[in-house]
TrEMBL record:
PANTHER family per the UniProt record, alphabetical: ESPIN (PTHR24153), FORKED, ISOFORM F (PTHR24153:SF8)
UniProt keyword annotations, A-Z: ANK repeat, Repeat
Entries under SMART domains matching the protein: ANK
InterPro entries, A to Z: Ankyrin_rpt, Ankyrin_rpt-contain_sf, Espin/Espin-like
Gene Ontology MF: a single term: actin filament binding
Annotated Pfam families: Ank_2
Name of the protein this chain belongs to: Ankyrin repeat domain-containing protein
GO cellular component: cytoplasm
Upper lineage: Eukaryota, Sar, Stramenopiles, Ochrophyta, Bacillariophyta
UniProt superkingdom: Eukaryota
Length: 178
């Protein structure tokens, strides 16, 4: 764990965060023993939107780093029941919608990622009973990505099956011929 990890846990004033980032920009990429970046810690600790925005702006790549449990910062922001540090039972308020928007701006793809429990950020938002506007924002991001994926898949004709076998190699009965 870096000093930046420890500081963002307590939602510091932005001028302190900015000074730390300027002094040690490489700390943004640092991971603790569980693979969490400072952005993970800030999101899981309920940091303010401006602090999250500063971290994302300084290192947007952190939005795509999965921790040991397969969680991204967006998972942690949407899971109000997550406990990052042993013995920390401080109740956490739901994230403001601005936090979710900032994290999606860093990586919209993160909305689709499932953790080791096979849960994505949308599911955590629902289980955590987050504001319906946040759930709808996550769903909209998911649908946008799925539409893009569908357009890409339509553009390229399918030439193989799920098993990567050429379609022409399938028996006629499977292709619908008698």
């Amino acid at each position: 764990m870096t000093l930046l990890h420890a500081v963002v846990r307590y939602n510091p004033p932005l001028h302190i965060l900015d000074t730390m980032i300027l002094a040690h920009v490489d700390a943004l990429e640092g991971q603790d023993c569980l693979g969490r970046t400072p952005l993970h810690v800030a999101c899981g600790s309920g940091a303010e939107a401006q602090l999250i925005k500063s971290l994302v702006k300084a290192f947007p790549g952190a939005c795509d780093i999965q921790d040991e449990d397969g969680r991204l910062p967006l998972h942690l922001a949407c899971d109000t029941d997550c406990v990052l540090f042993e013995g920390d039972q401080t109740p956490r308020a739901p994230p403001p919608i601005d936090v979710v928007k900032v994290l999606l701006s860093g990586s919209m793809q993160s909305v689709l990622v499932e953790d080791e429990d096979e849960m994505n950020p949308i599911e955590y938002a629902i289980v955590s009973d987050l504001n319906i506007k946040i759930v709808k924002l996550l769903q909209k991001a998911s649908m946008t990505l799925r539409r893009r994926e569908a357009k890409t898949n339509k553009a390229a004709p399918k030439t193989t099956t799920k098993d990567d076998k050429p379609i022409a190699a399938l028996p006629r009965s499977v292709l619908g011929y008698c």
